[in-house]
Amino acid sequence: MKTDASSVPFDVALEAVNAGSTSPKHIRRLLLAAGDELAALFEVADVKRRQSVGDAVHLRAIIEFSSHCVRNCSYCGLRVGNKRLARYRLSPEEIVATAQEAERLGYRSVVLQSGEDMGFSMETLCDVVREIRCHTDLAVTVSVGERSYSEYALLRQAGAHRYLLKHETADPQLYARLHVGHRLADRIAALKSLRDLGFQIGSGFMVGLPGQSVDVLVADLRLLHRLDVDMAGIGPFIAHPDTPLGQAASGDAQLTLKCVAVARLLLPYAHLPATTALGTVAVDGWAAALQAGANVIMPNLTPKAYRSSYAIYPGKGRNLEEPQRQRAQVVRMVTALGRTVAQDPGHSLRWMEKSKEVFSDAYRSSGMGVS
C-alpha cells in the first residue's frame, strides 16, 4: 500500500526517523530526498554512525569458495540455468590457506560465501570453519543460502559467529517472481532460526529491482528493523546479461546511498557495509557510503584464478589486485576520510552482551552444547 509522504516536511521526517520512528510516511519522505535534503540526510546518518559505532571501519575479507548453485534466481549470474558460467569449487585446504593469508594481512574477520552448493557438504564446511577457528583468531561469517535448522546448528557448533542471508526484497510477490518456487516467508523464518541459534545475523536487499517501488524499499528497511539485524548489506541491482533480467536497467547509486543512510538511522548499532555492488556502479561508491552511515568494507580475497568466475553480476570480479596492494588501497581511502581501520573482529555489541543467553532450548537440548 502506498504511503502519503508528500505532505510531510523533510526536516520533520528526518527528526522523526533519527529519533526512532519507523512510520512508512517518514521513511518514504527520506527516500524522496533531493538537493540540499540529500546532504542533510547523509550528514545526520554520518553523525549517528559516529555516535553509535565510532569512526573505525571494519575490513572483512570475502572468500567466495564456490560458484555452484542449485537455485535459479532471475537476477543472479550464478543461477543454475546459466550454462555459460565457468564453475569452480575451492578445496578445503585452499579456503583455510586463504583465511590464514587474510589474517597475515591484518584482517580480523573473514566471510565464507558461495552459491547454494549442495556438492560442498555441510560436514566439510564445518571442518573448514573449525580449522580456521583453530589456526587463526578470525571471526567467521558464513553465507551459503537457505539450509536446514540442524545444518545451521552444526555451523554454530563448529564456531561460526555470523551468518549472512539477504532477504533481497520484502515484497512477497516480487520475491516469488525472482525466486521461482521459493517464498519470502521461508527466508525470514531462516533468519529467525539463525538468531535463535546464537548467530549474529546479516540480511539486506537490492535497490532498483524491476518491479520495485519506493514503498517496497520502505518495507525492506522496516523489515531490517523488525528483524533487528546485526548487519545489513544494501546494494544496487546490476543486470547480468545471462539472466532473464539481463536487459533491465541497473539500480541507482544515489537511491542506494539514501537507503544506507536511512538504515543507519533505523539500526544505529548495526554494521553497514559499503557494498561491492555500490563500488561497481560508482567509482567513489565505497567512500560515499562511508560518509552516509556505512562502517564496513569487504575486500575480495578469493584467489585471482577464480575471482572472475563468481559472476553474480558483470564487473564484480574485475579487481584483480594482489591482496596486499588491495588492502593498502582501502586503508588509504579510509584514512583520507579521516577514519581509522578497526583492530577488533567487529562483533555486534548486542551479541557480545547476550551471546550466552540467546541459544534456544532446542539447541541446548540437542546435546551440541554452546561454542
What does the model show?
The model is unreliable at 357-371 (pLDDT under 50). The protein is of the alpha/beta class. The chain contains 16 helices and nine strands. Helix 9 (214-227) links the parallel strand 5 and strand 6 (231-236). The chain has one domain: TIM Barrel, CATH 3.20.20. Strands 1, 2, 3, 4, 5, 6, 7, 8 and 9 form a nine-stranded parallel sheet that branches. Helix 2 (24-31) packs across helix 9 and helix 9 (214-227) packs parallel to helix 10. It has helices at residues 10-18, 24-31, 36-53, 92-104, 122-135, 149-158, 172-178, 184-196, 214-227, 253-266, 276-281, 285-290, 304-307, 323-336, 349-354, 361-365, and strands spanning 56-66, 109-114, 139-143, 162-164, 200-207, 231-236, 273-274, 296-297, 340-341.
Keywords:
globular, nine-stranded parallel β-sheet, disordered C terminus, 9 strands, 16 helices, 371 residues, 43% helix, TIM Barrel, alpha/beta
Alpha-beta classification: alpha/beta
What count of helical segments does DSSP give? 16
Order of helices and strands: HHHEHEHEHEHHEHEHEHHEHHEHH
Number of strands: 9
Please name the fourth-level CATH homologous superfamily: Aldolase class I
User: What is the C-alpha radius of gyration, as a whole number of Å?
Assistant: 20 Å
Our count of domains comes out at 1
Kindly estimate the percentage of residues that lie in beta strands according to DSSP. 5-15%
CATH class: Alpha Beta
CATH topology: TIM Barrel
Low-confidence runs of at least 5 consecutive residues: 357-371
Distance between the termini: 44 Å
Helix % is: 40-55%
Largest sheet: 9 strands, parallel
**Mean pLDDT over the full residue set:** 93
> At CATH's second level, what is the architecture?
Alpha-Beta Barrel
